[in-house]
Amino acid sequence: MTAPVRHADPDPPAREGRADVPRDVLIVGESRVQRRLLAKLVVRAGYRVAEAASAEAALDLCRQAPPDMVVSDWLMPGLDGLALCRALRAERTSHYIYFILMTSRSEKAEVAQGIDGGADDLLTKPVDPAELRARLAAGARILRMERDLSDTLAELRAAQAALDADLEQARKIQRSLVPERTHRFGRSEVNLLFQPCGQVGGDLVGAFSPGHGTLGLYAIDVSGHGITSALMAARVSGYLSGEFLDQNLAVTRRFERFFSLRPPAEVARLLNDRLAADKGVEEYFTMAYATVDLRSGRVRLVQAGHPYPLILRASGACEFMGAGGLPVGLVPNAQFEEVEARLAPGDRLLLHSDGFTEAQLPCGRMLGEAGLRRLAAHAAPRESGRDFLDDLLRELRREMGPGVAAEDDLSAALLDYRG
């Protein structure tokens, strides 16, 4: 193997100002005269040249300092040019090496054999200087595009890594909106479930109480998925804050002394007006919002496009409640209706997202309301609300099939009413 030959560049290739311009060419061949002749032509074309008298020597040189391009004779003693190409493709070089194979024959079968062996181009001997320059220029263009794509890919990966980091932080922030799964309100208890299908989701569940034996319970599903839905869910959580009741749209102050719950239909109307007042916001959300008198068991519910809540009686009976209705923020000046029910000690009220009822089963159908009723009846014997929700989720995933991920967020709010 000869040392790399360095020459002045009388006619450097275009874009010389870039550090990544492919300029290093390795010439491989048994004939010293042929190598020197090619070297002069390559240098005149504006490239740096190194020479190797055999495939073995060329491999050693490529391992030490990989060139940008290789121009190799096909027929050589020991490893021939095609074997060199295959061996080079098997090496883990720092960058892609463009390989030009020289042959005295131009039959289609030989051309196909060379390309199949990993060569990028073939050059017929005797070498025409103009053709050699054109083939090298074509190789340099391809290498520049490959490196540009590699740079772009690296930038995209860096951007994706930054986005993933932001999404992970957003996931933690969104989790903080449901900081505790279990809340006690007197003797009754509320348990929450929140399982986004991605890193962040558009569902929201929660409960709050202004005191005096009353409770507000809600489940919300913002349209769409991803970051925009998550931002809207975070915004709505501020409207229904249990920590800052003076900012909660569902609560009003009475006689400047205490807070009380607004009627559910009024809450839906206020939220609808608030979204309608924000120009440029196209998102809307479905909502099931209930107020519960923890002393009498009276439930008042507004169902704004959300799936029908389910009452699980202590006797084992299951019944859906609700009257349908429009989603919040979809139509200006929308009107919302309320329905009422009465809970007895031991009954449960389940608000859930459509991630349950619209879950796809292996048979191609959705779980539906009948399927949810079946899963809820199976989970009903669970003494604690947390175990009930965990069992509900576990049974849903079992019916969906092993390894099948939910296509929508899964959320639920469960009230265990104990009088």
Please explain how this structure is put together.
Keywords: Coiled coil, Hydrolase, Phosphoprotein. The modification 4-aspartylphosphate is found at residue 73. The chain has 419 residues and is an alpha+beta fold. It has 2 domains: 24-151, Rossmann fold, CATH 3.40.50; 177-416, PPM-type phosphatase domain (Phosphatase 2c, domain 1, 4-Layer Sandwich). The protein is 35% helix and 24% strand. The protein is built from 10 helices and 18 strands. It has a 6-stranded antiparallel beta sheet with strand order 6-7-18-17-14-15. The chain is elongated, with a radius of gyration of 36 Å. The model is unreliable at 1-19 (pLDDT under 50).
Briefly, what CATH class of the largest domain? Alpha Beta
Count, helices = 10
* Total number of beta strands: 18
Structural domains: how many: 2
CATH homologous superfamily descriptor of the largest domain = PPM-type phosphatase domain
Outline type: elongated
Structural class: alpha+beta
Helicity range of the residues? 25-40%
CATH topology heading of the largest domain: Phosphatase 2c, domain 1
> What would you call the quaternary organization?
single chain
Write the layout of secondary structure elements.
Blueprint: E1 24-28, H1 32-44, E2 48-52, H2 55-64, E3 69-73, H3 81-90, E4 98-103, H4 108-116, E5 121-124, H5 129-176, E6 182-185, E7 188-195, E8 203-211, E9 214-222, H6 227-239, E10 251-254, E11 258-261, H7 264-276, E12 285-293, E13 298-304, E14 310-312, E15 318-320, E16 338-342, E17 348-352, H8 354-357, H9 368-379, H10 385-400, E18 410-416
Parallel strand pairs: 1-2, 1-3, 3-4, 4-5
Antiparallel strand pairs: 6-7, 7-18, 8-9, 9-12, 10-11, 12-13, 13-16, 14-15, 14-17, 17-18
Helix pairs in contact: 2-3, 9-10
